[in-house]
User: Fold Lipoprotein signal peptidase from Flammeovirga agarivorans.
Amino acid sequence: MGNTKKTSLSTIYGVAILVIILDQASKLAVHNFMDMGTLGEIKVLGDWFRLHYLLNPGMAFGMQFGNEYGKLILTLFRIIASGVIIYGISVLYNKGAHTGFLICGAMILGGAIGNSVDSVFYGVFIEGNAIPGSSTPWFHGQVIDMLYFPMIEGNFPTWLPFVGGDHFLFFSPVFNIADSAIFLGVLFILIFQNKFSEYDLNGDESPSFNS
Assistant:
């Protein structure tokens, strides 16, 4: 992955747009062609990878976030964060930040916007999607999740403290393409942070202390 001068800013933002399109297309397909819950599951790779239609009122990977006001705060946070990332990508691009870093930022941006679309609009335009009891369907839509990887299931050894004999399932959360894009964007930044830092903010390679 090279310097951003070889990649247009529209291409960087295009990564975010691609994530949004794939995310929304998969969610609407699941909503229109699958039944919710275990009875509607579709096995993709045996028992290891399934499509499982689930409505998530909270955060990524099925995590919950407070009550009705918590959901509103979360939705507003996603929108504000998306705006900050859009601005940040533009600024860093003009300063010559590494292309790979900006692509990771675009993945995170696409994921944030993808889930924001659910939260803002799905409660209004998809029947039964709004969080039950919410004062308005706007900003209270539930995120559609469908990717499920229950790869390992069993019981902890009885000799383990606290959890001995308890049932466990890995990986139990159900998530979506937007969640995946955010997770992978952050993961790649952590993995390749040394590579990304080889370029300074003027777009030049940083000097090597080994030369």
